[in-house]
Amino acid sequence: MTEDPVALVTGANKGLGKETARQLAARGFTVVLGSRDAERGQAAADELAEGGVRPLPVRLDVADTGSVQEVAERLEGAYGRLDVLVNNAGTVVDRSAERTTAIEMRRTYEVNVFGAVTMIQTMLPLLGRSRAPRIVNVSSTTASMTLTSGGTYFGGDAGMRMAYSSSKAALNMLTVQYAMAFRGNDALSHIKINSATPGYTATDMTGHRGTRTVAEGARIIVDLATLPGDGPTGGFFNDNGAVPW
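Request: output the structure for the sequence above.
Response:
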């Protein structure tokens, strides 16, 4: 067992996930670094260790309920609780709306939406034992129906990502629904859950064309993961505050 707060970050072997793990570890968290590929996860952990932080790498495929359950059991045995869950794992299809197939939509939702549900439902007993549990769903500014319908330019290939953007809009609704449910459940009412958008960040997903660094993009994720007791829940935020739905 550890007195340090424990955070689990999915999809953390690169990009925003790895940087989120680094920043949380720098704030004193024991970080569990989830990666679908065990070797890549270990490599990421080794790289972070060179910078002075030592996350625990675990194989975690959010689309595989058995994999998620195994990690939950490992956390149960090692820590007995979970203080922060960051649902960062995601996938994208670069295709215009009229060419996107139902199969591609299902594959995207399997990770970006159903994977987040699997993580939250499986980790809820552990989160419920934390004194200040936080869930952060990593979303996208392109999930905003207000901004999208208003013609906002998001940069990059936003117009080629119907599957991705709509899945993140669904993820935002999960955030709202869970927040409402937690408020009405005495055993879970202390859990805060929010969606974070890192902005147009230079990662593999954007072909490293993003205008923000991973350090900048991860900042809002970490801020929401470490909210004080009077912080918000059920919201959608970037560095500048609330983002319109």
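The first strand starts at residue 6 and ends at 9.
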